[in-house]
Specification:
The chain is 27% helix and 34% strand. By secondary structure, the protein is an alpha+beta fold.
């Protein structure tokens, strides 16, 4: 079963056919959506059903693998790695100092812009290259599945776009029926045997910016918005601050694309105010993020639930509820495979209290999520 599932993914890579394979956080089933042709389909109004993959800069360029043009397969057994399988990667230390200096300068420029009141927060990022044998992509995907049970783990490929993998801890939004859930996730420190840690004002303030932005963005579009208390969560070997946010909406007046535009990109991946922070990113990062800090996931899937779980009560089991479900995740902790190189994308939130050296170290810690498996 395992060999058949992963062999199909390998065959699609070799035959240059579009697919996405993924496992949602804390679930056991790995699904693959295999598009039956190599057409490039765009989302447009986000009313169709399928797996969506959106870039950071413009959701109008979001790509979808439509369910009505795809085959869906599932794998739910334990993933066993063949000990004879291996991958090896050497990191280019020669360019590391140049990358560090550029990033430190970028952070300094961001802090100065914040002190000049250009914006309150901005997220700056970088991309790190490492040699990687692209024939071992599916092995890397299996390693991600084995190591990051609480993340959205995926492998996405389209011959006209590229090959991306990741293990993201952050939900952009979940919609089930008329209920919407999202989260505010920001602040980072290494996990060292406990989640009972002290957070600095910089991280607390950064995370509160994200929470306030999401709530303020949703209120004009949805009447009732509520939040939980801030908590520390573990994602891989890192800790983050998280607040859960939920809302109930009137389906008749709900415009999903407007909600997406209001939320994406959040201050957790862009900044605040959004427009000026995004402008700073596009002018100063010196590379194209592409799908890093975009979003991905299930769009308008149909979910059928029986109203009675008692199998003996056959009559009541005939009454089923059908809901439309959407699960979208922010594309973090990800990499792109291109020309036998792994392009690893990492970043961090900058506020007026940011220390450029520490911000560099944070990106190094985040890169280990992927590097440790290469």
């Amino acid at each position: 079963m395992q060999q058949s599932f992963f062999n199909q993914l390998q065959n699609r890579l070799e035959n240059q056919l579009p697919f996405v394979a993924y496992r949602k956080p804390n679930e056991t089933s790995v699904y693959a959506i295999l598009q039956k042709n190599d057409a490039l389909n765009y989302c447009q109004d986000f009313t169709n059903s399928g797996f969506v993959f959106s870039p950071f800069e413009n959701i109008e360029n979001a790509i979808i693998f439509p369910l009505n043009q795809s085959e869906i397969i599932e794998f739910k057994d334990e993933i066993i790695l063949d000990e004879t399988e291996h991958s090896q990667s050497n990191f280019n230390l020669e360019n590391r100092e140049k990358a560090k200096q550029f990033h430190v300068n970028l952070v300094e420029n961001a802090v100065n812009a914040i002190k000049n009141e250009s914006f309150k927060k901005v997220v700056v990022s970088r991309v790190e290259q490492s040699p990687f044998n692209s024939s071992e992509t599916i092995l890397l995907f299996k390693r991600l599945l084995n190591n990051y049970k609480t993340a959205m783990v995926y492998c996405w490929y389209h011959p006209k776009v590229g090959l991306w993998l990741g293990a993201t801890p952050e939900t952009l939004l979940k919609i089930e029926g008329n209920r919407l859930q999202t989260m505010s996730l920001a602040g980072t420190q290494p996990y060292v045997n406990t989640t009972d840690v002290t957070w600095q004002n910089k991280e607390i303030e950064e995370q509160q910016f994200v929470t306030d932005f999401i709530v303020d963005s949703l209120k004009p579009l949805i009447n009732t918005v509520s939040t939980t208390k801030r908590q520390t969560i573990k994602a891989g070997q890192l800790l983050h601050l998280q607040t859960k946010i939920s809302a109930v909406f009137d389906k008749a007046n709900f415009n999903f694309k407007n909600v997406l535009k209001a939320l994406h990109p959040t201050p957790a991946v862009c900044g605040l105010p959004k427009a000026t922070a995004k402008d700073f990113i596009l002018k100063n990062e010196n590379y194209n993020r592409e799908f890093y800090t975009g979003f991905l996931g299930e769009l308008n899937f149909t979910q059928t639930k029986s109203r009675n779980t008692n199998r003996k009560n056959v009559e009541n089991n005939a009454y089923q509820s059908i809901k439309t479900v959407t699960n979208l995740f922010v594309n973090l902790r990800c990499l792109q495979i291109k020309n036998n190189q792994a392009l690893i994308y990492v970043g961090g939130g900058i506020t007026k209290d940011s220390n450029p050296e520490k911000e560099w170290e944070e990106t190094v810690a985040k890169s280990l999520t992927i590097k440790s498996l290469l």
